[in-house]
Amino acid sequence: GVVEVAREWYEGGEGAGGAVDVRAVGELRRPVALGEIKKAAAAGEVEGMKDFALIRQARLSVMPVPVEVWDWVCEMGGGFVQDGEVGEEEAEG
């Protein structure tokens, strides 16, 4: 799924570290595997991909995504469908 930050990082409480609140905004038509992203980064397919936080620390769950990387991920994922939109398959069926 695709999310946006609803509340920036804040202290989570005693011993809990911090948190970022997110809200779901949609999904890609097909998942894009981390392996595909790493392969594109290694090949230099996308400007800024080698410096993308997901490549350096794959366990990060919330991170900024550079525009060039976002565009590539959306293309590889067959497009981005926002919540509430009807996908092509649903519209045809």
TrEMBL record:
Entries under InterPro entries matching the protein: 5hmC_binding (IPR052181), EVE_domain (IPR002740), PUA-like_sf (IPR015947)
GO CC annotations on file: nucleus
Domain named EVE: residues: 1-76
PANTHER family assigned to the protein according to its UniProt record, in alphabetical order: OS03G0676100 PROTEIN, THYMOCYTE NUCLEAR PROTEIN 1
Protein name: EVE domain-containing protein
